[in-house]
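Hey,

Quick one before I head out. I ran the complex with pyridoxal-5'-phosphate overnight. Inputs first:
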Amino acid sequence: MTPANPTTAATVEVDRRHVWHPFSQMREYASLPPVVIASGRGGWLTDTEGRTYLDGNASIWTNVHGHNDPDLNAALSDQLGRVAHATLLGLAHAPGADLAAELVSLAPCGLDHVFYTDNGSGAVEVALKQSFQFWQLAGRPEKRGVIGMAGGYHGDTFGTMAVGDSGFFHDRFRPWCFAADHFPAPAAGDASASLTALDALLAAKAATTACLILEPSVQGAAGMRLQPPGFVRAVAELCRAHGVHLIMDEVFVGFGRLGPMLVCADEGVTPDFLCLAKGLTGGYLPLAATLVRGEIYDAFLGTYESRRAFFHGHTFTGNPLAAAVALANIRKLRPLIDTGVIAERAAIFGRLLAEAFAGHPHVAGLRQRGLTAALDLAPAGGGEYPVALRAGLQVCLRARAHGLLLRPLGDSLLLVPPLCLDQAELGELVNRTRRAIDDTLPFLV
Ligand SMILES: Cc1ncc(COP(=O)(O)O)c(C=O)c1O
């Protein structure tokens, strides 16, 4: 399909010739009507054809205050006028230092050191490597195993694929991944079977296990699987009791996505490692952080020749532009959380979703927590759509016609709006989603 606008056509032509898009069957991608994003403001994106869309997945779960936010823009251009990049290898800079202090102030007491990377996978890799090295330095090299939870997603690098459980996303790479143990995720309202299985696994394997990794409260990429109240704390207590590090992967749930700034602080749980990314920069720039407990940091101290140092780093580790915009993002978000603005938006979102989709003939499941939700699409008579029908994708394509950008996960729709949407915009998100479903699914055969 050739677009009428020459700017669009030129970009589409080059894009199709040279760009390999993530998570995409490129033959399918090339067959779909193109959308070329030109600009954004608030919760909205505009394409090169002048069409405007509500950003219903917050640009892959990152956006907080909206696109083109004046405060974040100002922080970025102020830093740009000073220096765009300087390495943290042997040097320091104010944005990197100030952001670390800010993150430590948000986190539960004891998480007092910050290691920067560029994305969520990197933050998790660092936590895993630091846990492995800690146990070596502590004279317990046999503690090298990892426990993850069924359905967990922690990224697409080899370490994160190894500890995750994302089915066909990663299955073909299993031969190159190290082995990890997994315990069952909790049932919707009852965590007892999951916790009993975890306790048994830890009793059998804690002596050879370095760490457990958990996406607390909501497993995003598993389709917004919700954990019942008290589950996160119970997992933390089991880890502590069995002497296994707890890595909290708040890459998705942190920075107000579920209401509080950080889930672990809200739950009163202090993990050994805390991984942050996505909302950290308000959706502006790639930056991630791994927060570490002081005792773990201290174990790495020694002389140079003791080889206790953590040999890991990336070219853009702690990039000053990203750190400056992250600081501005957090300082703007804090009062919105403290005064209940984000919690109120989440409550409105939940109410609107329930009104629109409870009992809907094509919505077999609805899960919502904070400003995130999943709708499981299904045929009216029950059962599932054949995979080749691409029901979820069809609904998302139709949503574009209603001025809404959404991403499917199989036949589930994931709704993850920027946190800045007001009541009217949240209403638009829900109504446009409903119209896209009603336009599509009754006619899908
Ligand atoms: C919980 C969680 N951890 C880690 C990641 C990986 O982050 P990134 O895509 O920035 O590498 C994601 C990405 O969706 C995630 O949801």
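The mean pLDDT is 97.

Talk tomorrow,
K.
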